[in-house]
Structures are given as structure tokens and as C-alpha cells.
Amino acid sequence: MEVRYMPLPEIIIKEIDMLSEEDRKKVLDKIKEKYMAKDALLLGGNSSWLAL
Fold this sequence. Notes:
Helix content is about 50%, strand content about 10%. By secondary structure, the chain is mainly α. It has one domain (about 10-50). The chain has a two-stranded antiparallel ribbon with strand order 1-2. It is elongated, with a radius of gyration of 14 Å.
């Protein structure tokens, strides 16, 4: 029997997808706060952003 492991980013995305809309927003806001440049602009409502 072959055991397959999912890459960590896929596991994280799967777990985020299982959250409620409110919890998902909290997690994504925290990720933006921690990892996005402070001078980045969010374009539209998606994760596309432009660093100035």
C-alpha cells in the first residue's frame, strides 16, 4: 500500500477552506498582517497585490 503525503501548503489551504467565513477572514487578515509588505496595496478583493 502506497502512502501519499500532501505538501504543507495544500494541507494549510485545505484547513483554511474548512473554516467558517468569519474565521477564514481572521486567518487571512493575520497572514496579510504578518507576511505582506506594509506598503502593499490590495487590488480588488482577492489576493493580488502590488508593492509600492
